[in-house]
Fold:
Amino acid sequence: MFVDVSEIRNSPGHRFHYDLTEEIKPVVVGNDEIRFAKPLVVNLDILNTGKTLVFNGRIKGDTELVCSRCLETYPFHLDAGFTEEFCHASDLAELAESGQDTEEIHVYDGNRIKLEDIIIENIVLGIPMKSVCGENCRGLCAVCGANLNKEECDCKTEDIDPRLAVLQKYFES
Ligand SMILES: [Zn+2]
Ligand SMILES: [Zn+2]
Structure:
């Protein structure tokens, strides 16, 4: 996934806008593989500051996550924004001399900027680690494992600590 910046590089003070659609391979987040059925939409605003190119981007896509309470998959809409700054390798020395902190600045060569790593990084940041299908998800019964969103069970679960539930079952049998 590359952006051709040859024209922007020669236009200090100008801003360019791009709407890209990108196919992306499954991204590993924690124990899950995040797959996007349709290509991601990437909206890019690129500003040539004279010394650097500042990318303001938005990544949108639809995927499925597994609920951490009920373990069912549910649709998740990713909408992640990012800002990244790029400096051409040949301008880096000058930028550093001007006193600007270059630690956070990406260096590129030639006329193309690779976006893939930034997009993957932002997908990882945009996916909640412990996600739930909905605020009201009732999860699984700690005793019988029934999905309480779909069925009621007869287990007495009030005030039972899930860790003690196993023990209680043991004493009942
Ligand atoms: Zn759930
Ligand atoms: Zn139950």
Notes: The first strand starts at residue 2 and ends at 4.
